[in-house]
Amino acid sequence: MELQPLDRQVFLAAGTLDEGNRYASTVLVTVDEPLLGTICSGVLLDSRVVLTAGHCVCPRRKGSEGFRIDASACVKTASVTTVTYEPAKARHMSNARTHVYDGAVRPHPELEILFDAQARVVSGRADLAVITLDSPVEGLRPDIALADSEVQLNEALVMAGYGHDPRFGGIFGARYFRQNTVTRVPTPHGGRLLFEQRGTYLYNGFPGGPCFREGESGRWLVGITSVGTDTELSLTSTYFHRDWIHAALRK
Q1: pLDDT, tens digit, for every residue of 138-147?
Q2: For the whole model, what pTM was predicted?
């Protein structure tokens, strides 16, 4: 499928198409659950472990004063799709090489996101989940290092993921990256940060996608994109939850 000129204008808000496979460790995450119909992103930590957002695998449920997401009602399995492009043909999505893997889902036990009656985020913590794949990925070597320090206010981070918005849809397998600036550092509880949206609200932060600190000496994973709204976008700090992530890798 080739992106047409009108498509390019619409999808420009998503960022830059990853034609060079710079973020090939960023994967598609899908589940067989009607209440979780949105396509999510995730990131390969090693050949059999994917880190994504808890809200991508745990549906929102009605609560006493609004809605909530927690670890008590999550799907058991998810599918992970790796996508690599032939450099000269990256704009033709039909030429992307894809492989699908299934795996077991394990959300962070402290996952909790509360919404008011208008579905606005009231609070959130530990919006993370790992997917342990049944078999290791082929032809792709994960190159992700976990950050050894917390993000700072006004720090510029690179977000990567698959363009999708519940109102406008997306093109399956089109991976983008863009830069966003941190506007609020984590509180002592839950490791939730806020970042500014560049441009329009389209492609709301690539749900479940990785957030990187990049420099001349390398690239480090600092967060996973969490639930956002049209007034604020958020991510979950991987540094804040580093002990749980390291434990998941050891298992």
Answers
A1: 988 887 899 9
A2: 0.89
